[in-house]
Amino acid sequence: MGDDDVELEARLAEQDVFEPPSAFAEQANVADEAIYEEFEENWPDCWTGAADLLQWDREYDTVLDDSNPPFYEWFTGGELNASANCLDRHLDDRGDEAAIEWIGEPVDEDDRTYTYAELHREVNEFAAALRDLGVGADDVVTLYMPMVPELPIAMLACARIGAPHSVVFAGFSAEALATRMNAADSEYLVTCDGYYRRGDPLDHLRKANEGLDAVEHPVSDVVVVDRLGPNGDDFGHDLGEGQHDYDDLVAAHAGADVEPVARDAEDMLFLMYTSGTTGQPKGVKHTTGGYLAWAAWTSQAVLDIEPEDTYFCSADIGWITGHSYIVYGPLALGTTTMMYEGTPDHPDRDRLWQIVEEYEATQLYTAPTAIRAFMKWGTEYPDRHDLSSLRLLGTVGEPINPRAWKWYYRHIGNEECPIVDTWWQTETGGMMVTTLPGIKSMKPGSAGPPLPGVDVQIVDTNGDEVEAGRAGYLTVQKPWPGMLRTLYDNDERYVEEYWAEYSDTDSDDPDDWVYFPEDGAKIDEDGYITVLGRVDDVINVSGHRLGTMEIESAIVGVEGVAEAAVVGGDHPVKGEAVYAYVITEDGYDGDDEMRDRIVAGVEDAIGPIARPQQVIFTPELPKTRSGKIMRRLLEDIANGDALGDTSTLRNPEIVEEIRASVQD
Ligand code: WT7
After folding, report:
1. 423: Cβ below 6 Å to ligand 1?
2. Chain segment 391-417, per-residue pLDDT in tens
């Protein structure tokens, strides 16, 4: 580092407010601060502008139907098709422009560009194939696929024929796949032979087949994408009965046209399973009108997407970020969206920067965990590349620490790109709290104010607003178009999980209903919100949400385990890491063999992302007199922090004993 750099770093370290770079502000999609006031005065009609970004087959009658809270309905009476919105209507202007730039992991080997016309063609052909297999409107199609172009194609093909999709992250285990197919009564699966991870082909179909064996109802058809070609021969896969090769199906429907099915605005577009406080994942239901309007509007207002952009989000489509901000939002706006199959460190730690340079990416939307890893690897990797095509940077998934924020701002954005730190959830469908990049100053570490028209308050346990600077609970006081509608087949749990805490659940006045996302937060004098993290038994590992109960039940399923408690401990790169405290049954030792079986048990039940960082064997767990496990204390132990109050413990002596057995 030269002297200038040292000076610069010192200045950055002290600066805690950053103004939008003027070159950016001059061209921003949202350029007028008045939007905040206008939306407040004009609520809920302020959302007609979001709906206007879409093409409707039938105009809606009402913006918001709030007659039966919390079962809100948006754009009621309207009809539209998501695939027509993402494809057909762009054909005239953008038919020959790239819709998807797909980058495979092997460098320069098999990158693929799909123009809007090409994407439209293949989506039609695959939609025709699905229909021929018997998929009808409202049949849930499960997509257990890695980052291959056939994943967004399958999503849009489902949307075209009115079949909701349920994408299961490819890193999830066979068992996790079966749980989700069972919960959604899904009879169709689209999957893949394998994909590349750090240079090697990885078998995916074996896991899919294992999962299928555990599905409790008959599965009608399975479609398998051949990603690996001859490189997958070693896996020895033969397609079984009811299994079809994707390319064969598409070829058999070459030239087919499928009329997009007009869907009611409130019809389900997709289900996305996410972790909650119980062992059973929640099937979050998103709709066609409200969700799509939200994804499109936030993509335009926050990510500043224009059709001419080449926009890059490094998330996986298996999570909500990829649904909203690789597929639906960007394609609804007719832009070029990028997809990368591999990891950022293959073949070298500059892979992402090489991709940004090669494709001249205009926006980059990634996760704090990735930024912290880049920071650890050092500036030499981004410094090898020309990143000047970038106009805006974004982060999502977990709080970003100011140091990582400033590193991103300086070394990736060259101090010329605003950063949007976007707070939202699977359930919110899209962004809720973040700065509008052309008009709002940025405060590293704070996500920013709520978006215009979004009513967020930080409250205490009684639901009263807390003073600036005090910690409280983040709540959303008014509905919004992108909100989840309910949990699949479980209205009761929907009310219980998200609304019961701060609402008068007997009331039918929408003012008495408050959405609680289970995050802690504080707010400053300027209304900027700093999200502090989950307040429920959900932990956030590398921006991925994991339920401690799910991991615990996996561990308790391992032979020789009597009891387990799982908490999140701080981790410098991942944000949080899984710490598992385990009591063995009599006759079993807490040895390496046992530890390996526990780790394998978690990987089998959920996937490698849930792998415990540490398994700590203990003779007892710290419990209150009423028998409740004191998780806070276990977190303190994991973090090596001073212990909180232990006076309510039934067994205070156990804490020191556990602490002694935690080593780094
Ligand atoms: C949880 C939602 C949103 C898509 C990816 C994760 C945490 C998310 C931020 C942020 C602080 C954040 C919250 C939230 N979170 N974004 N910018 N700052 N925390 O979706 O799996 O549904 O997880 O992620 O705790 O509740 P998800």
Report:
1. yes
2. 999 999 999 999 999 999 999 999 999
